């Protein structure tokens, strides 16, 4: 079982910054992809950013130039640095990690979600 624990959400004024963290624990051999999603009230969950084991990143157009996804391999942790936040960034943010357990079985795990609220 691979468990993810998120932290770093909160309330911030427009133009401010927040840094989300997602730490994975369990019997992990490798993490192939790391991603952040978000879901605003009444909307579908959307992909915000991805980071592959090779270091390739991809961002939603709405966050390009403002958000940065990064990882700490030694700690099996993924981060989302969010700058120049806007009220439309308000959502519950979820991390998603996929890879292999030590048993060589594939895992695809989700964090519990962390609320980000941006006030105008």
Structure description:
This protein is mainly beta. It is 0% helix and 61% strand. The chain is built from no helices and eleven strands. The chain has strands spanning 3-7, 10-13, 18-25, 28-39, 46-52, 57-59, 67-72, 77-82, 91-101, 106-110, 114-119. The strands form two sheets. Strands 2, 4, 5, 6, 9, 10 and 11 form a seven-stranded mixed β-sheet that branches. A four-stranded antiparallel β-sheet has the order 1-3-8-7, with no helix packed on it. A hairpin with a 6-residue loop joins β4 (28-39) and β5 (46-52). It is elongated. The model has no long low-confidence stretch (mean pLDDT 97).
Helix content: under 10%
Ends: how far apart?
A: 40 Å
| Uncertain regions spanning at least 5 consecutive residues | none
> What's the gyration radius in Å?
14 Å
Reading the helices and strands in chain order gives EEEEEEEEEEE
Which class do the helix and strand fractions yield?
Answer: mainly beta
Descriptive key words:
120 residues, mainly beta, 4-stranded antiparallel β-sheet, elongated
Short description:
By secondary structure, the protein is mostly beta strands.
Detail the topology: elements first, then pairings.
Elements: E1 3-7, E2 10-13, E3 18-25, E4 28-39, E5 46-52, E6 57-59, E7 67-72, E8 77-82, E9 91-101, E10 106-110, E11 114-119
Parallel strand pairs: 2-11
Antiparallel strand pairs: 1-3, 3-8, 4-5, 4-9, 5-6, 7-8, 9-10, 9-11
